[in-house]
């Protein structure tokens, strides 16, 4: 069981300490063997997935985890660069590439895909995209990668058109057609569930939607479309600095994340919102309820 033990800085980082027993003889002697692996995660579903591994697989495998729950999207990479984490698990490649291009000089390695959190268009006031009124306000994530995804949902629903020359980081300024005169309001992703009562609809990241129980408490107007590069662009995965990629503990965690028991846990826990991705990068489809 994870226990709250400290808060780091202004980001309200919850340290979740876990003791998983001594490493197995097979793990002893390797690089990093016998040491606790500190992994920064978003609380849901990432933290829950690591907690499942900790409680069911880690001790047998000889892996001791310290799960560091972080509520925002900037701190996990910062702590990785500063050496406070050995790895993190909260982001997709598109976000990592954008963050690395604008952050401190560091060599990140995206090690393996684990799952996809589907962005959804949610509303408390209407039951379908067609019911959105003239001049509706729709809140969207403000980080570039997920803002682009959100605009893709609105375009797929026929609410707007986006300039195709804007590429993968389009913003509300790239909207070329807006027949309902919709106002697109970018907000920090973590604020979107709280804002949904004040707008006509909101595009919310899967992890924050789950925490706020939006898939069951609000109307799901649409899920994001899945393109050919869906996994490559938007699967969340395990990330470490290049110097730590071959760390035995990191490689062992990468293997455990694709254990059949973990895949089944993901499928059963978040049907339709979180899609498990196997070691070959294939989505394990689960029909949304």
TrEMBL record:
<keyword id="KW-0472">Membrane</keyword>
<protein>
    <recommendedName>
        <fullName>Lipoprotein</fullName>
    </recommendedName>
</protein>
<feature type="signal peptide">
    <location>
        <begin position="1"/>
        <end position="21"/>
    </location>
</feature>
<keyword id="KW-0732">Signal</keyword>
<dbReference type="InterPro" id="IPR004872">
    <property type="entry name" value="Lipoprotein_NlpA"/>
</dbReference>
<keyword id="KW-0564">Palmitate</keyword>
<keyword id="KW-0449">Lipoprotein</keyword>
<dbReference type="Pfam" id="PF03180">
    <property type="entry name" value="Lipoprotein_9"/>
</dbReference>
<comment type="similarity">
    <text>Belongs to the nlpA lipoprotein family.</text>
</comment>
């Amino acid at each position: 069981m994870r226990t709250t033990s400290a808060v780091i800085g202004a980001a309200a980082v919850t340290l979740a300490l876990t003791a998983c027993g001594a490493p197995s003889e097979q793990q002893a002697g390797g690089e990093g063997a016998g040491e606790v692996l500190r992994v920064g995660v978003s609380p849901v579903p990432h933290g829950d997935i690591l907690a499942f591994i900790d409680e069911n697989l880690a001790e047998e495998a000889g892996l001791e985890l310290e799960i560091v729950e972080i509520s925002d999207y900037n701190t996990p990479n910062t702590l990785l660069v500063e050496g406070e984490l050995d790895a993190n698990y909260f982001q997709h490649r598109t976000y990592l590439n954008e963050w690395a291009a604008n952050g401190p000089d560091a060599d990140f390695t995206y090690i393996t895909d684990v799952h996809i959190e589907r962005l959804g268009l949610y509303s408390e006031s209407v039951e379908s995209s067609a019911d959105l009124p003239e001049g509706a306000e729709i809140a969207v994530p403000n980080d570039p990668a997920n803002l682009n995804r959100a605009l893709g949902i609105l375009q797929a629903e026929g609410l707007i058109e986006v300039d195709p020359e804007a590429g993968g980081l389009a913003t509300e300024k790239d909207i070329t057609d807006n027949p309902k005169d919709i106002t697109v309001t970018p907000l920090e992703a973590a604020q979107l569930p709280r804002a949904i009562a004040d707008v006509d609809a909101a595009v919310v990241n899967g992890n924050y939607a789950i925490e706020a129980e939006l898939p069951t408490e609000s109307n799901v107007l649409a899920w994001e479309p899945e393109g050919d590069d869906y996994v490559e662009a938007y699967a969340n995965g395990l990330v470490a600095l290049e110097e730590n990629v071959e760390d035995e503990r990191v490689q062992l965690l990468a293997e455990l994340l694709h254990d059949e028991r973990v895949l089944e846990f993901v499928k059963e826990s978040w049907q339709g919102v979180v899609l498990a991705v196997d070691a070959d990068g294939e989505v394990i489809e689960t029909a949304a309820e």
